[in-house]
Amino acid sequence: MTMALILPGYAQANAIEFYGFGASGTAQGLSSAAAPGALATYGNPGFLTASKKGDLTLGLQGSQSSLFIEGSKRPAAPARASQHLLVGFNLPLGEIFSRRLHLGVVYQSPLEQLVTTRTQHAATPHWAFFDGYTERVVSALAFGWDLGAGMTLGLGAQNNVGLEGQVTLAVDPGTERFTERQLDFKYYGVWSPILGLRWQVGKTHLGLSYRSKTVQSYATPAFVNVEGLDAQFHLGLGGQSHFVPSTTEVAARYQHGLRRWFSLGGVHKRWSEHPDPRLDTSVTVTGSDAEQLGLDSALSWPDPAEAWGISPGYSDTLAFALAGGWEMRPFHGTLSYGFEPSPVPEQSGFYNQADGDNHQLGWGVGYDLDAARGARGWTIVLAGRHRIYPERNHRKERVGDVTGDWSAGGILHILVLEVQRGL
Questions:
Q1: Which of the chain's ends, N or C, has fewer CB atoms near its CB within 10 Å?
Q2: Residue 168, exposed/middle/buried by CB under 10 A (0-12, 13-18, 19+)?
Q3: pTM score, two decimals?
C-alpha cells in the first residue's frame, strides 16, 4: 500500500545568479557577459583571455535582509540571510596552435549547510527566491581560446554538486518519542553547458553568452520501525529544486585608456521553463501488525501517477545593467545600476510568493597592495550590491481567502570582502 501526497515546493537558482561571483560580480551588477577575470568562467568564458595575465580570487560573501511582508492573515516566513565562501582563478595555459588558451574555475559554497531545500505551505507568504535559493554548492569550469582577429571562444559547464547522506528514525509508541533516527537523502548532481564569445573592435569588447537551464532532483527515503509491533513504514520524499533558467546575455565594454571603462548589458532569462513546483511524498506500510490494525486501508491514497501540480505561471524576464570603473592608484572603484523585472505574477490565487521588480545598486573599492606596499600582485577589494524592492500589493480574487491580501518590499544588502592575486 502506498500513499502519495502532493505539496507545492519552492527553491530556485543559485548564489552566483542572485549575488554575482566575488567582488567583481557583486559590484558590476546584473550583467556579466563582458566581465574579465575569474568571473568570466560563469558569465562569459570568452572573456578569460581579455587579459594575458591570470588571477586568483578568494573571498567571503554575506547578505543582510531588510525585506518585509505585511497584512497577511497567516504568519509570513522571513527572508533568510546567508554567507558563502568564494574561490576562483583564471589561469593562462600557454598556446594551442599558436593561440592563447586560458582555464577558468569558480567555486561558491555556503558556510553552514552545503545544500538546503525548503518547502513552504502554499498559503504562507514568503520570499520565494530566498527559500533555499542561494544555499547550495555551485561550481563552474571553462576554457577560453583566442581565435585571433580579436575573437575568443569560450566553452564550459556549470555544476550543481550532488550530495548524499543518512539519518536514523525509530519511534517508541509507549513514550511517543523517536529513539533512533535514520533518514537517507540524495541530491543528484547535474551539469549544464556554458557558451561564450568575445569580439574586440578597437577599444570596445563585445560579449555574448548562453547558460543552459539546470534543475536538481532530490530523494529522501526513510525507514521507520515501530518498536513492539511488526509494522514498518517506508517514507519517500522526492521532487525538483534549485532551478536555474536558461540565460542569454549580451554586453559591450568600452575601455577608455588604461584607467577607465564602461559597460552596458542585457540579460534574458526563460523562467517560463520552470517545472511545476511540487513535493511527492509516499508511505509504504509492511508487517503483519499493520494489516491487523487496518493501516493499509486507513492510509490508502490515489495512484501517484494521477497526481497533478499547479504551475507557478512565471514569465520570462529581460533585465539590463550599466557599470563603470576607474583607477587612481593604489585605489580603483566600480559603480553599477541595474533593473530586473520579476518573473512572479500577481499572487491573486493559489500561491503566495513575495517577489517584485527590483533596482540594483552596486559598488566596489579595491586597494592595490603592489602599488602601495610593494606586495607584488596582491589586491584587497570590498564590494556591495543593494537590491531594492518597491512595495508590491497582492489582492486575492476569492472572498474569504485563508491568506488574505498582503504586501511585500524592502531591501536586500550583499557584501563581499575579497583578496585577489595576479598570476
A1: C
A2: middle
A3: 0.83
